[in-house]
């Protein structure tokens, strides 16, 4: 279990120590103050303000439409709630692909305007100059390889990635490039468990998986999926810890019933 719940604040140094001690790293997405407060209180090591906000908060089909300003609004809300968790924010599509200068100014806006502790960026060799430039400014960077949802239209599907040898070799090489550039951790999304194991064993930095099996140094899920708020999304890698959709539906129906039936408010619930 958690050896490190007592620590005051999670830092990149502590995450590195967790890998060396074999303590698994817990990471979950958060997009707002109230939920972040609960996850921080629970002892979540990392909170990710994911660009999945585009899907679960705004209702878009993909992560592409969310803007840097919208990510900053979510991230600032999360940061106001936390005492202990390390907060990482996704650089959204279109805020870094232009060049490394654009990437740096987007990362700086996130750090300045939200108080977050680091940023995450999708890709390997293609974005390595941006990664280096952001890291040299003192901002911790988390990599993201495998299924990279901002490139969905390049691939056409959300199917498992790197099942072929050439793609697996490219992923391992990209992971090493990201480590050499100075990334403090890497997310691997939807790739074979044995490939993720090899990456976690060959790299010194923590490897966090989503659909990447049990041999990595930590796990991340989207909060709406983990809590069962999302009825439609159920890939094999997801474990649901609650069925909040059904519970909220039931509570909402009860409230409607109580209002219509003049049961709410009662004598004690008025002035
Ligand atoms: N709610 C939510 N959860 C996520 O994990 C998530 C997002 N949104 N939005 C951004 C990305 C997209 N991600 C995804 C998207 C799809 C699958 C997936 O496995 N989809 C299908 C299979 C599709 C296929 O094989 O072509 C499934 O089984 O549901 C996994 C991760 C992860 N991220
Ligand atoms: C699925 C995780 C890793 C993510 O990038 C997101 O939530 O945006
Ligand atoms: Mg993301």
Automatic annotation (TrEMBL):
Pathway field: Cofactor biosynthesis; (R)-pantothenate biosynthesis; (R)-pantoate from 3-methyl-2-oxobutanoate: step 1/2
InterPro entries named among the record's database cross-references: Pantoate_hydroxy_MeTrfase, Pyrv/PenolPyrv_kinase-like_dom, Pyrv_kinase-like_dom_sf
Keywords per UniProt: Cytoplasm, Magnesium, Metal-binding, Pantothenate biosynthesis, Transferase
Location of the active site: 189 (proton acceptor)
Superkingdom of origin organism: Bacteria
Binding site for 3-methyl-2-oxobutanoate: 51-52, 90, 120
Cofactor binding, per record: Binds 1 Mg(2+) ion per subunit.
Entry binding sites for Mg(2+): 51, 90, 122
Enzyme type, top EC level: transferase
GO molecular function: 3-methyl-2-oxobutanoate hydroxymethyltransferase activity
UniProt similarity note: Belongs to the PanB family.
Function comment: Catalyzes the reversible reaction in which hydroxymethyl group from 5,10-methylenetetrahydrofolate is transferred onto alpha-ketoisovalerate to form ketopantoate.
Protein name: 3-methyl-2-oxobutanoate hydroxymethyltransferase
Biological source species: Chitinophaga horti
Gene designation: panB
């Amino acid at each position: 279990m958690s050896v490190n719940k007592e620590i005051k604040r999670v830092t990149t140094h502590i995450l590195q120590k967790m890998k060396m001690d074999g303590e698994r790293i817990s990471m979950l997405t958060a997009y707002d103050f109230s939920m972040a407060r609960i996850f921080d209180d629970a002892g979540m090591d990392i909170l990710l303000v994911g660009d999945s906000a585009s899907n679960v908060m705004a209702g878009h089909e993909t992560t592409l439409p969310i803007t840097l300003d919208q990510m900053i609004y979510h991230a600032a809300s999360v940061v106001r709630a936390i005492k202990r968790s390390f907060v990482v924010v996704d650089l959204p599509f279109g805020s870094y692909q232009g060049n490394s200068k654009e990437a740096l100014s987007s990362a700086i806006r996130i750090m300045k305007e939200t108080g977050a502790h680091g940023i995450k960026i999708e890709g390997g060799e293609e974005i390595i100059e941006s990664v280096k430039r952001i890291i040299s400014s003192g901002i911790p960077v988390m990599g993201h390889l495998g299924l990279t949802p901002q490139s969905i239209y390049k691939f056409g599907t959300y199917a498992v990635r790197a099942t072929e040898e050439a793609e697996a070799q490219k992923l391992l090489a990209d992971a090493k490039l990201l480590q050499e550039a100075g990334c403090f951790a890497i997310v691997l999304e939807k790739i074979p468990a044995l490939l993720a194991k090899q990456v976690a064993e060959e790299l010194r930095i923590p490897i966090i998986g989503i659909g990447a099996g049990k041999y990595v140094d930590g796990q991340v899920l989207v909060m709406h999926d983990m809590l069962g708020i999302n009825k439609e999304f159920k890939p094999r890698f997801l474990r649901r810890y609650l069925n909040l959709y059904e519970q909220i539906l039931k509570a909402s129906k009860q409230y409607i019933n109580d209002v219509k039936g003049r049961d709410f408010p009662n004598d004690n619930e008025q002035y």
